[in-house]
Amino acid sequence: MHSVTDQAHPTSPRGLSGLARRFWTRDDGSTTVFATVVFVLMVGIGGIAIDVMRYESQRVQLQYTLDRAVLAAASLGQTQNPRAVVENYFETAGFEGYRLRVNVEQGVNFRRVEARAEMETQTLFMNLFGQPMLTSPAAGAAEERVRNVEVSLVIDNSGSMNLSPTFRINDLRPAARDFVTTVMEANNNATGEQFVSVSLIPYDFTVNMGPTLASVFSLTNEHTYSTCARFYDADFNFSGSNPFIGIDPTVPLQRLGHFDAVTASAPIDWPVCREGTSGQILPWSNNIAQLHGAINALSPQGATASDVGMRWAVALLDPAARPALAGLVTNGMVHADFNGRPAAYNNPETLKIIVLMTDGENTQQYDLRPQFRSGPSPFWRDPNTGRFSVYYPYWNQFWQESADYWSHHPDGGSNAVQLDYRDLWEHISVRMLASRMFHSDSWNKRAGQWSSDNHWRANHVIQIRNQFEFHDIVDEFASDNGIVGDARLNAICQAAKNQGIVIFTIAFDAPPRGQSAMRACASSDAHYYDVDGLDISIAFNSIAQTINRLRLVQ
After folding, report:
1. pTM (2 decimals)?
2. What is the CATH architecture assignment of 148-364+478-551?
């Protein structure tokens, strides 16, 4: 006898009762069991999805809170205990029953905070399948490290900055002051450590080193009226695999002549190199008030030599200047924390920045030709009256210029002194010399009287006068209307970028050639700003914020 479940011998419906026979033979309800199973599975999957969503929501919130907490705790401006800061963030977020581990590493110029958090989520549906809990993990780390920052701020101080009606200098001053304040924020810290140094480098005809920097760099000694260096084309030649782009403070730089090449005045009005501290370089400063004062004191005049400004900007970031900086530290002129700077170019803890702005374009530059830099001149002067005389050895006579008189003695007699060329140019401009000292009276007058018999002097006087024309005295270099200056600027900019110096440039209402020079000098198009009017403040603020972001490693 076989069982009804024996598939080899199925039971015939004829042997069943009527109700059982109908159930056996009908198939319209055969999916009910399957549907029940599917429904249970759907409910289970949906429940699992709800549990997963609850888990993921908690995990995301946990991670978000932890990220914010470690960033806040890692801030060097945060004076509370970093662990307490992290815990406070979790309490404020309303978390309970979480597990938290916090690890803190910190030093003078950095703080690193690492944290891991875990929190259990009780399941609603997965519990039916043997999974009563899900653990939400979160982990994160943040580091704030203040890097040493060396900044060269190169500002156009030429005459066009003060021209009506724009008076751009009035917009520049507050923008530059705000820039200095912002980039020096890192120096205001609990330990008093000084991380950021700023060198202010104004430029016009050239750059005035000023007495401070000149005390630790070397200059030739033709005169002591001013402290500007002349740079030659060779000083912008940076060929080779590892070119030297700094300035050796022990090697004398050619001192630029002290003279007025622009006006026709006596005494001179606009020396090519400013005297004393006017428009001087303020090197390696951490003193915000001092820098603000120097910016406020800017007095625009003269032409534009951004290549010279850039040459000094790089020099004050180059390690070759380290002995000069050390000398100023010794003299108490630079903060002791900056000893050992400028850092090496490959120092990972140091960021080197140049900010260069102009409102114009490069022009030709001027210097005295070598024979007119120093040495005895044929000009005499009475220091009491300021009267000049010209000595003619051919006749062994003096032409007393102020008296219109030929004499065997200079005007002023024994009080008169022979002027060295270095002193001559303090008392009379180059453009005035020839016309004043060699005018026609010198051959048309004799003993104060008009006389035609002095015409024989004319040829000799004119011959001497021709030796003192402007282009005989003045060497115009970086000429071709400034094209050479543009080439020199581009050369030093490229050399600086090759060493990893970050260069920001600003064309402030500048003409097309000035804009092109600034764009080419910048580290990238993103580092170049073309602005008008009050937008100069926006440019400087953007650069300052970018520098601070580069300074912080998170």
Report:
1. 0.77
2. 3-Layer(aba) Sandwich (3.40)
